[in-house]
Amino acid sequence: MPTVTPQTVTRDTSPLLFRTLAANAAFSGLSGLLLALAPSSIAAWLGLPGNVLLAPLGLMLIGFAALLFFYVRRQAIRRVEALVISALDLGWVLGSIALVLFAPGLFSGTGVIAVLAVAAVVLLFFEGQALALWRLGRATPTTRSA
To answer: Radius of gyration of the chain from Cα atoms?
Structure first.
């Protein structure tokens, strides 16, 4: 049983956060496996050169997914950890958009669609996590001085 403090979020206090983290973990893990196991095929499909470092990116996503699964299975996460995960998701979205906008020609047309589609899914995870944390902040009683 996890220790519960005001800085800790549990499955009971925020089912939305844990459902979103679980979906994020599954999506990140599957994406990581695909990138790690078939980097050349995916690079070709995205219109990238064959020597792009997709396999290491896949391994990093697998590690990220493992961390998320750890939190979901533990059924507790500190708010700051959830904020960091959300910030990483937002960073992925912004980085994806920056690549598409500021590196024209890097991806094929299909690659642009794929990168933006993945960014849209990750944005949904960010939004779900941020909404869950915002709701927790609103539900936390404030201390009043006499």
So the answer is: 18
Compute CA distances 118 → 11, 14, 93, 111, 133, whole Å.
Answer: 26, 25, 8, 11, 23
Helix (H, G, I), strand (E, B) or coil at 14: coil
| Spatial contact of 93 and 126, defined as CB atoms under 8 Å apart | yes
User: Within 13 Å, how many C-alpha atoms sit on residue 102's CB side?
Assistant: 6
Residue 7 lies in a domain: no
pLDDT, tens digit (0-9, with 9 covering 90-100), for 81-111: 999 999 999 999 999 999 999 998 999 999 9
Looking at the structure of the chain, the number of domains it has is 1
Range of the domain at 115: 12-137
pLDDT of 139 > 70? The answer is no
Q: Is residue 143 in a domain?
A: no
Q: What is the pTM of this model?
A: 0.88
CB 129 within 8 A of CB 20: yes
